[in-house]
């Protein structure tokens, strides 16, 4: 029996198992393939709790004592089919200063037993603050902390709001892990009374509007997209004195599209008469539309959750972005002239080639002119060169290779007249995608070599004077080697080697000054699982990560490696490395 059909039978059997547990729970239990093996927490030999972590740079804090507020403490047991957990939020009132230089959200959680990784979200007033994935627990227990700089939501945090947290979890005789969670916000007063931010461009927004669901009865506040024809939308209205707007998009992918970059081209499936649904190939993009007009796109980073491929790879070093999934900004300012009429308008989202299920919502950041009751604007130019997909296939039977390449660009120019002057904003996005996939050994081997280049820029000018500009060049490399080896007697060895990278070069000029930042973040992992009659009987996983960040004022590096739940080497520092 070839690996392709072994994997399909495993997918079917485990999907039926999950459905029998709970039809509601099946919505969020990741469907199993060879990339998502059974729970293997019983392989751990540790007798004390393990601290899991995602490697990232420390948040730069002022030398002031924070005012800390516990927002929520809750045990997430059987929560499928239940509404989000709610709590009242009020801004800090007893801090010695109401001028904060930094605001940090802190998530702390423990879990013990057997449990899958779960996606969760934290919203304040419907605005998403954090999208994250839980760690998979062990019998001896685990602990992890996520700290996120939420200073950009300053205006939101200064008003009474409703906190909503959704973590869909299933607890029964098999899945025993309960997530014990504590959420705190730390407010750090500014060292000098210089105000929250520089006025004009470069500051944090004066108003943040949720582009999300109203609090539902049995889900998170995100929208669900189940296929490429699905479009989800939310109506909104902005004040008529806005002079800048940015939509911040949160996105995560699950179930049949959790590993979308490994999906087979449809021509391969039909040519081999495979009895599986079409997988729509290995390219995905999130399209953002305003009043029916595409204004931008997101080509997302390939986050691997803590149960992906081989869970032993992510113990205790988790995958890049898994504890703090990235959000993506799309500049709306060139289009402000079309929505400053005091009427209701609409954001919509869809996912090219999507399979079930994608979770998407957004936050609309709006800057207001305090010196004017009404601004005006006009869209001057708007161009979308749609995604041009090229697929070159070369296969015989279920062996062969496939090269998918895609490129796209979006550019917009518009002006807004306010007390800051008549400012013209030019926003551009440019994307390139390459996915080379190899299938060999009659389907027992799959290799994926993928690169996403995601570049965007914003330039704001008044007459010939540049007021603000930002440029970001992101590069997301991914390499995957996956091989299934039949050992006989019902035993199968599954080998996974992977490389995952998140690299970004950023340039900002204006607002708070000129700065250049660079991030190089690369993980390498090697793992083996031994399966006997659909049960994992042995396994190992090793991970190495090199993280390097610098921005001229602050540098940070960390080199860390682990094997079989233990840290082998860990070196970090705040010196700049070339």
TrEMBL record:
Pfam families: PNGase_A_C, PNGaseA. Residues 1-22 form the signal peptide. Keywords: Signal. Residues 63-381 form the Peptide N-acetyl-beta-D-glucosaminyl asparaginase amidase A N-terminal domain. The keyword Cytoplasm does not apply. InterPro entries: PNGase_A (IPR021102), PNGaseA_N (IPR056948). Coiled coil: none annotated. The keyword Phosphoprotein does not apply. PANTHER family: PEPTIDE-N4-(N-ACETYL-BETA-GLUCOSAMINYL)ASPARAGINE AMIDASE A PROTEIN. This is Peptide N-acetyl-beta-D-glucosaminyl asparaginase amidase A N-terminal domain-containing protein. It comes from Rhododendron simsii. The lineage of its organism: Eukaryota, Viridiplantae, Streptophyta, Embryophyta, Tracheophyta.
